[in-house]
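Changelog note: in this version the structure field was regenerated for every chain. One regenerated record is shown below for reference.
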Amino acid sequence: MIGQSIALPAALLALLLTVDTGFAENTLRDYPVDRITANTYVIHGPLGYPSVENQGFMNNPGFVITASGVVLIDPGSSVQAGRMVLKQLGTITDKPITHVISTHVHGDHWLGNQAIAEAFPEAVFIAHPEMIKRAHAGAADEWINLMAQATEGFTAGTRAVIPAVSTSEIGRLETGGMTFRFHAPERAHSGTDVMIEVVEESVLFLGDNVTYKRIARMDDASFNGSIAACDTAIDLAVLHYIPGHGPTGDVGIVNEFRKYLATLYGEAERLYEEGLADFEMKPEIVQKLAPYADWVNFDDQVGRHISLAILEIEKNNF
């Protein structure tokens, strides 16, 4: 039979193509790498919700090249995203990944850990202790299922590689001549958040405590806590701010997001005291937020944000 082709039954062929052999997996399209400083790079993902169109990739993976290796931050939403990040990283350096830091528990940022662990089994995975706790308690499985549903199965094969080292355990990370400081707001975007300051690069990875040109979900968040996180970021006075979603910039991107939060919450508080319900106050608040009307997901989220702001106001009042 040597030299002859063998026709496999259709059912067997279909089975083989679903086995995780590495040759028939979905491949995420490549996204360009943007250089932020001498040693810091970001892949800016598209804005919006995870979908078939964006293949579930919509965050900002970042990496910092040190003297001894690479520190990777938020490698994306799936094993496919993680592999794309590795491929693009390989165009910049052949140094190994030594550490991977997850900014918070939302899986669109960290489920790419699987690809990194497969390629660099000695890498150390780090996150906020509450992120680690919640991921083990079911959040990991919830996000795996959410991504698979949103992409109609594109992210199939993704497994949760949950960080094992907590930021509170190590305090800060010093590696390869670089210092990574962790700033953990008590209650901001998710209650599991870490902002990562790269001291020598004057860079701050904000996670989803700040987004730019995209309105973030606030279902797990606190408005007051998020405003406080913005104030912390502003006070650090770094040169480069990298949001969890949206373009990188200077402190202006933090100020813009803070203004959105403060305006919405402040107006909701004022109108609540006047006795208005959420649907009654929405037109006036939307008018005050007109500068953000072209931000991605504004129409989807602003009404929800008003309702959540009222819940927080009521909680603070009682």
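Spot check on this record: The mean pLDDT is 92. The domain at 25-251 is CATH 3.60.15.10 (Metallo-beta-lactamase; Chain A).
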